[in-house]
Write a structure and sequence with these properties.
Blueprint: E1 3-7, H1 13-22, E2 26-30, E3 46-47, H2 51-55, E4 60-63, H3 68-78, E5 87-90, H4 96-108, E6 112-115, E7 118-119, H5 122-126, E8 130-135, H6 138-151, E9 152-159, H7 166-194, H8 199-206, H9 214-225, H10 234-251, H11 256-273
Parallel strand pairs: 1-2, 1-4, 2-3, 4-5, 5-6, 8-9
Antiparallel strand pairs: 7-8
Helix pairs in contact: 3-4, 7-8, 7-9, 7-10, 7-11, 10-11
The chain binds ligand NA7.
């Protein structure tokens, strides 16, 4: 039975930890704000007071934190509890540039790293239905396959070398789609509203036709229902637009939509919607956001 340390129990890390517990693993959790980790005690998790305490003796360490700096800090402060040969699944979205920095950190501590971000937000995380986009050595896979199977419905092993950033590169491409789509849905509904047309008529026209999708339904339901409970926050989506833009620029690929989506998230965040679902990009269409 594996012992898994989960560093970060936010919207994603908490349900992932629950699914690991459900599959019979021993799970230790750590979160900067401990209050967010404590509810996991009733699911059977051990709440650790520090990253070092969480990782001590763990077979697998999962990082599910907001960005590369937070991951770097958490693993650095875990150092007293780390031992050579531990497997580290880095599952946060950190961007291509950060992967090599984290690979160096893993090397310094003798950790076997997998670059393994996930596709999917809170609900797929709750359902154990994430898609894991993984790169890492064969040696790590025996330990990681059951862990990934507990949190996801599919694992794509993309490369033997975590430092290739193959998982993160694929994540950049897929999250770019989700983020741009959200802005597209929001702008369409906002335009209807601004033109004095009931935005629900947009939903009715799209539903069941060639432009329909599960994604359109989810984001339009959020906006039309005024329910911005986060699946993925505006704050994290804005971070991702910067990571995607950087990755595109480094590869010589022009990405216009994601830059525009980033501007919208920054306006939404400035208007107080940072902790809401990224569908709150809707409010960025209005000079007075409350007009939305
Ligand atoms: P959340 O729900 O915003 O959670 C973010 C987590 O990262 C949460 O545990 C935070 O702790 C933690 N965090 C943020 N900054 C730091 C620093 N500086 N140090 C330590 N811990 C930190 O995000 P999601 O769960 O939706 O997403 C996690 C990742 O997956 C992210 O990369 C997404 O893009 C995809 P807190 O509770 O605020 O103390």
């Amino acid at each position: 039975m594996s012992v898994v340390a989960v560093l970060g129990t936010g919207l994603m890390g908490a349900p992932m930890a629950r699914n690991l517990l459900k599959s019979g693993m021993t799970v230790r959790v750590w979160n900067r704000t401990q209050a967010k980790a404590l509810p996991l005690e009733s699911d059977g998790a051990v709440v650790a007071g520090s990253p070092a305490e969480a990782v001590e003796g763990a077979d697998v360490i999962i990082t599910m934190l907001s960005d590369g700096d937070a991951v770097h800090d958490a693993i650095t402060s875990a150092a007293p509890g780390l031992r050579t040969g531990q497997v580290w699944a880095q599952m946060s979205t950190v961007g291509v540039a950060a992967v090599s920095r984290l690979a160096e950190l893993a090397g310094r501590h003798g950790l076997v790293l997998a670059d393994a971000p996930v596709q999917g937000t809170r609900q797929p995380a709750e359902q154990g239905a994430l898609i894991v986009l993984a790169a890492g050595p064969q040696a790590a896979r025996q330990a990681l396959d059951p862990v990934f199977a507990a949190v996801g419905r599919r694992t794509l092993w993309l490369d033997d070398d975590a430092a290739s950033g193959a998982g993160t590169k694929l994540k950049m491409a897929t999250v770019s789609y989700g983020i741009s789509m959200t802005a597209v849905v929001a702008e369409s509904l906002a335009l209807a509203k601004g033109l004095g047309v009931d935005p629900d008529l947009v939903r009715q026209v799209v539903t069941g036709g060639p432009m329909d999708s599960v994604y359109f339904q989810a984001k339009s339901a959020s906006i039309l229902g005024g329910d911005f409970t986060p699946s993925f926050t505006v704050h994290n989506a804005e971070k991702d637009t910067r990571l995607i833009t950087e990755a595109g620029a480094a590869a010589g690929v022009r990405l216009d939509l994601v830059a525009a989506a980033g501007d919208r998230f920054r306006r939404a965040e400035a208007a107080g919607h940072g902790d809401e679902d990224m569908s709150a990009t809707y409010f960025a269409s209005f000079d007075q956001p409350e007009a939305g």
